Known about the structure:
The protein is an alpha+beta fold.
Amino acid sequence: MPSNRQFAHRPLRSGMHESICLRCFRTVGAAGPVDSLSAQEAEHVCSTEDIVALHGRIEPQKATSPQQGEESA
C-alpha cells in the first residue's frame, strides 16, 4: 500500500511502523501494520507553532488538516 504523500512511514526495530508528518515533522503515531496508521494520520493537524518554527512564516492552508479540501484515497 503506497504511503500518503503527506506522511512518511519508517519501520522501527520493534517491528512497528512510525508515521511522520512531512509538513511539521511531528511523529503522528506508531502501529504494527502500516495500514493501522491511517486513522491517526486522518486526525493529525499541524501546529501553527511548528510550521512557523520550521518555515519562519505561516500559510493558512498549510496549518490545517491535510484532508481539508483534498479527496481521500
